[in-house]
Batch of 2 targets.
Target 1
Amino acid sequence: MAVHPAGYLHLFLPPTLRRCSLSLIHPDLKLIATCCAATLEDLTIKIPYQSTTDELCLLSDSIRLCKRLVTLYCPPLDWAAWKHLSNLPTLLSVAISGEVLCPLDTDNFVFTRFLNVTALSFHVTTASYVIAVMRNSAFPSLKEFKMVARVLPWEDAEQLFHALSQCTACQTLQHIDILSRDQRVPEPSDSSLTPITQFLGFTQLRTLQLAFPHCCIRLDNHLLSKAMSSWPHIRSLKLEDPHPHPATITFRGLSAALRQSPHLHTLHILMDTLNIDIDPQAESFQHTSLQTLDVRTSHIVDREAVAYILFSMLPSVESVIHGSSGRHIRYAWQEVNRRLQSLKSSAVLGRRITGATAAC
């Protein structure tokens, strides 16, 4: 739908408009919502600039006029708009993107239940807005949650984890992404929190991506195995800490974790590949589902041993993805991948020779 000059828009609005996409909060947005309140299902407002307070007020007022929204993508809303959205049984997906100019006044907000919302996404400056929404709302049907924050202080991360666990979505959430790349966040000094343990109660998880400072702090073999045993359906696990922490997950810990997760096909995790604590010849275990292994910037010494462990344990991994920082690390993993390919080629050739011999 193209937006026409103010004063004439009502002449061009189709009476059955179902989808509307705007690149600005148009002065006639309220008119669109009024004329199409009973038919508008998909409203997308992607703004390439920072909205003003007046524009955000107009947006929230307009949203409260919509009666049949199914999907909504827009800048941050006020409490009154969130309250209205909670009363829409048709609403399935909400995505909020933009800077929050006015913090939500939680003292005047009535707890709400979004009965049928299955997907919730936030792209904001800080997590405060997201925490306020999650603390004061219930999402009993939520399957997907994503938050991208410019900065995520440790205190906000703790509050966000707690709010997520309290929003009645523990038995429904299947996909969780929490991302923040600002590396200026200091390491927590007095907290015993390990982020991954905050998600053990989400038993239906299929994918989990944590990519924010210190998201892997205090993670070890035991906690990784415990987490995997809590997620019987997990397909993808990405733990990408932008802060350099000592690697603590060994090959033995990886083996134990993989035994708990037969469906896992993607794993991104910093590994301690200096410590060769497993003998693949003595311990025959293969995880055939894992196809993508990203070891981040793991250091390595015994390239031949690492290649053989990967070949023996992970037959579906064609090559290992590694970080780009440090020429020595890159070269070492490139050599591991070459050795891995050589082992696979030799195994294929051996099977062909064996098959040909049997045929004779």
Target 2
Amino acid sequence: MDNHFSFEFSSYLKKCQPKPIRIYIQMVIGTILMIATEAGFFKGFEKFVAIGCSLPNQKDSNEMNIDNCYNNDLLVTKCINNFYNTGSNYSLSFNVGGRSDKYNGLIASILVILFITFLSTFQTVQYFQSVKRKRIQDVLSGSLILIDGNKKNEKIVTIFLFVTGIGYICSKIMWLLNRYEVYSEIECNGDTYYLEFEKSLFTYISGLVMGSIGYLIIPAVFLMGWLNYLSELEFKKLAENLSKISLEKINEIYIFDMDKYNKLIKSTLKKRYPNDKKLLLFLKCNTFKFWKTSTSEIVEILLLHKESSPDEFKLIQSKNFKTTFLNENRINDNLIQNQYL
């Protein structure tokens, strides 16, 4: 292993890799923002303002107007006051409550479960993704070996986040439809009157959908994160921070398959630590989630395996490096050579 490359690349990683405290702060801020956003959304439905009322038992929006609310000796507004305790027989503004709503509890429970599931899953995988990204980059720095390949777990989690996010949005729409239907009608002296609110149902749903786009963006952000675990390492800055000798080592980077890596680590650590308890061994073997196994030990295992089984390592070519390692950057083919002319 080239110690010069390792030193320079490690120094560069220290500059671009986010500190753990930054990741924790991002997770806390993200959680607070999501909770605050959802709380604000549901708080917006604690109060309705009617701007029109129907004729008795006629659900016809064309016949709705504010005069109908005050006809028949303030019949409708008095009913609103009796139901919602507005404090005035003239008020068309009321807070929700006091109505029988058999579906609200069920839908609300589903919403809570989906929200907690989505939020906890995303924050957990976001943390583990940061651990895996750092581990892959550190191993590359110490061994000139890039661990890449099967990302089955990441695909499953991404699909799960998308499904959960869509399910949460759909449940919010169901909750909104149910609440709108329950509070848009009122019984007065045996007749049913329908209320037209300040905001239409279409407006409410449009705002809900626009405000919930984040539940589709978040899985997409997670997806972009695991598609390229080296995306933080901008090639141009890399060329500026590494010497010409170290940059030439890029052509000596090898790729080692992810599945083979996991099998190698598990088999090697089980032989090295036969007396370890199962939990400790589990933590050591899951190197992309926990830090019980040092990066230096992983590098040692990989280099020894490379010596004994070189056929399992694929030499990465310059062009492949640009697409696999930094495929989101437009790179001049002569950048390395021209950088030090």
